[in-house]
Every structure is written in structure tokens, then in C-alpha cells.
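Protein of interest.
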Amino acid sequence: MHILHYLSEVKPIEELPELKNLVVVSEEELKLAQMLIQKLSGEFDISKFKDHYTEKLKELIKAKLEGREIAVKEEEKEELAKSLVEALKSSLEMVEKKEKEEKKKEEVKEKAK
């Protein structure tokens, strides 16, 4: 899963000096994280994305103010990764699998022409 943080949600790192001392990252974790970032990096146009969460939240607030009853669904909890390394490896595997699927689709399109 990828999380997009909107500009209004992001603080400059200089405003969070306590982060410098919180996390110790192993060399393997750092390399895996860098590989994942490199795999997922590409051209980015934020105007293509909408903040659906905020839109839905505003709709819920409006409904509540109008006195309508709101039904809430419980979300299924995902199993937490046992370690950062496992989570990074799993993410890399998912990206590589997706790349292979996209490559196969392109090959099928090329053959169909």
C-alpha cells in the first residue's frame, strides 16, 4: 500500500529534531528501502490525485449535522510485518511482480497488433 501525504500534512524535517535520535537503521534495511524507493520512483503530478479521505470526512460531517444516521464498517486489520526487513522485502516482491505483469500485458498488446 502506498500513502500519499498532501502538502498540508507534511512538515519540514527541520521542524522535527527529535526524529534524528529515534531510529537506528541497519545497513540491510537502508539498502532495501533505497531499492524500493528506486523501483517506485517515477514522474509525479500531484494534480492527478484527490484527497478522497478528506472529501468523505466532510460528507460524513455534513450528514451528521443534518441529523442523518451514519453506518460505520469495521476494517479488517492487516497482519503486521515481523520486521522492517521483511516488510521491505515483501514490498519489493510486490513491485517486481507488478512489473512482470505489466510487461506481459505489453507483450500481449504488441503481439495483437
